[in-house]
Amino acid sequence: MGQSIKNLDNDTLLVAPSILAADFADLGADIRRVEKAGADIVHIDVMDGHFVPNISLGPPVVKSIRKVTNLPFDTHLMISEPRKYAESFAKAGSDHITFHLESEGDPKKTIDLIRSLGCTVGICLKPKTSAKLVLPFLELIDMVLVMTVEPGFGGQSFIADMMPKVREIRDAITAENRKTHLEVDGGVDADTVGEVFAAGANMMVAGTSVFRHPEGAEFAINALKRVAE
Ligand code: DX5
Ligand code: ZN
Questions:
Q1: Relative to the alpha carbon of 187, which ligand is closest?
Q2: 108 C-alpha vs ligand 2 centroid, how far in Å?
Q3: What is the CATH number of domain 7-228?
């Protein structure tokens, strides 16, 4: 296992590059490159071709890349049956597992299962899902992930309309005095990160804008972190 997101502050701006935008032919080297450039977390997008119209990667890939870094593995399950596969990802080296509130099964049972595997737990909301639906689970989870694109593909445009939802969840976290991380995923770059941070998110998933930045990953990560200064 790698490091736990529990050891990271929930009010510091953290950058989680999404390996969906990495060079899959040289994945280990690409992860080392973003770690050296200042990445705090590795975001791993798992798609099953059913919950979302795309297929990405599974546990064997997680197991392979576990050897190249100790950064926390933030596993974003965009799959219909998270309970069926959570154990395989935990065994492969996922430190954190986020499932979608819109996926199958009782969320409480999914949370309990993920926790029993020794992982921290997150719940993700698609753009059309209301913030109110996740608030009852705040006391049970370590992270809320708000999608700022429809899940399924990297490189899409940021949906700024999600900012009131981010603010509503951050206000609840603060009001309840919790350490819950608030992550945003989709279209985050140097132009959009300012409003995301201002709305109260602290974990920035960034695929295209980090792995494919023409000036390199260090330049990209510094540009994202600068808004918190
Ligand atoms: C979308 C994924 C995202 C995506 C982010 O389904 O969950 O993590 O890869 O990619 P960018 O930063 O390129 O929007
Ligand atoms: Zn993701």
A1: 1
A2: 21
A3: 3.20.20.70
Residue 185 catalytic?
Answer: yes
The pTM (predicted TM-score) of the whole model is: 0.98
The domain locations on the chain are 7-228
Assess whether 45 carries a catalytic annotation.
yes
pLDDT tens-digit map of 102-142: 999 999 999 999 999 999 999 999 999 999 999 999 999 99
In the set 40, 48, 74, 185, the catalytic residue is 185
What contacts 4, CB < 8 A, 6 or more positions away? 72, 95, 96, 120
Measured in Å, residue 185 CA sits from the centre of ligand 2 at 6
